Amino acid sequence: MKNELCFGLIGAGRIGPVHAETLAWRVPQARLVAIADLKQPAAQAVASRCNIPKIVSSGAEIIADPAIDAVAICSPTDTHADLIVAAAKAGKHIFCEKPISLSLKEIDRALAAVESAGVKLQVGFNRRFDSNFLRVRQAVVSGEIGTPNLFHIVSRDPFPPPLAYLRPSGGIFLDMMVHDFDMARFLMGDEVEEVFAAGAVMVDPGFARENDFDTAVVLLRFRGGALGTIDNSRKSTFGYDQRVEILGSKGKIASENRYPNQVIVSGERSVYSDLPYNFFMQRYTDSFTAEIQAFTEAVLEDKPIAVTGADSRMPVVMALAAGKSSDEHRPVRISEISA
Ligand SMILES: NC(=O)c1ccc[n+]([C@@H]2O[C@H](COP(=O)([O-])OP(=O)(O)OC[C@H]3O[C@@H](n4cnc5c(N)ncnc54)[C@H](O)[C@@H]3O)[C@@H](O)[C@H]2O)c1
């Protein structure tokens, strides 16, 4: 059995450097041997920081490299499906950022290529590996809080991405809330059968010009009868706001924000703490490490992947249902969405 997995990474934008650091510094069985970006200075900067020996400009060069066992796809969403298909055909294992595609047909094409090549694919739903959210799931699965009746997620970014990022991203439901749709299934251990979504532009009028929202709320109806809400904002002035609460028949479980320190300052007029972690790069470092560790082990030890093909597809179905719901101002059943 091989005891080391050689990775090539594609895309050195916001998330690429996070995974590059994880591969280079935090997962002992992983070795990052090459990085690609259309923008060479971006790739060069990450390569020098993480000691990556080879810099190229295209994903194709990573996929063609015989020294590479696995690719980490961190380029924009509209490039994922083609890169997955090409990597699978070349026999490479694949870690791909979420979502695989904005189109279910494209997702199915990518999943079929992976299946027929017999390689492993894991999609970057990193929040499944967060220790707080794992504890919330355990409380539901074990019956510790009884039958879950109400589910709430608050998921707000500290500031919006550049407007140029938005168009290939698919908009707030497919790009941002897709993580929360995944969490809804994962934490509740149940499928959603209906969504009712509303969006607004409250942060930056540029979102309206991109035909997108920067603020959104979705009401979920689960198959088991429970109700849920997800609220997203592209701007939270106090940092990355990532909270979950589930109310069950025997109690509730809640996960609060994470902080760089636990200090509380008490003064003459108020008691306060410092701000939470500012964004995903800091807040989810542990879960990014755990997901890459799990993927690496699954490949090296030929174990099942923690995030299945269905897990990578269903949040996109839910996001498409949310988009339809907000367009048509009505609840949309998941069964209305087909490829
Ligand atoms: N899991 C998470 O928390 C998380 C966080 C952020 C982004 N993402 C996902 O990661 C992906 C990238 O997002 P980002 O915010 O890093 O985007 P970004 O725009 O900041 O970076 C993308 C990089 O890819 C490069 N690129 C574009 N096309 C390429 C190609 N064909 N070959 C090689 N390089 C190419 C660009 O030059 C850019 O440097 C998206 O799918 C997004 O949904 C996931």
What does the model show?
The chain is globular. The mean pLDDT is 97. Helix 5 (104-117) runs antiparallel to helix 13. It has helices spanning 15-26, 40-50, 59-63, 80-89, 104-117, 131-141, 163-169, 172-175, 177-188, 206-209, 280-283, 285-300, 309-328; strands at residues 5-10, 30-36, 54-56, 70-73, 93-96, 121-123, 148-156, 192-200, 215-222, 227-233, 241-248, 251-255, 264-266, 271-273, 332-333. The chain is an alpha/beta fold and 339 residues long. The protein folds into two domains: 5-123, NAD(P)-binding Rossmann-like Domain (Rossmann fold, 3-Layer(aba) Sandwich), CATH 3.40.50.720; 128-285 and 315-336, Dihydrodipicolinate Reductase, domain 2. It binds nicotinamide-adenine-dinucleotide.
Helix-strand layout with pairing:
Elements: E1 5-10, H1 15-26, E2 30-36, H2 40-50, E3 54-56, H3 59-63, E4 70-73, H4 80-89, E5 93-96, H5 104-117, E6 121-123, H6 131-141, E7 148-156, H7 163-169, H8 172-175, H9 177-188, E8 192-200, H10 206-209, E9 215-222, E10 227-233, E11 241-248, E12 251-255, E13 264-266, E14 271-273, H11 280-283, H12 285-300, H13 309-328, E15 332-333
Parallel strand pairs: 1-2, 1-4, 2-3, 4-5, 5-6, 7-10
Antiparallel strand pairs: 7-11, 8-9, 8-15, 9-10, 11-12, 13-14
The chain binds nicotinamide-adenine-dinucleotide.
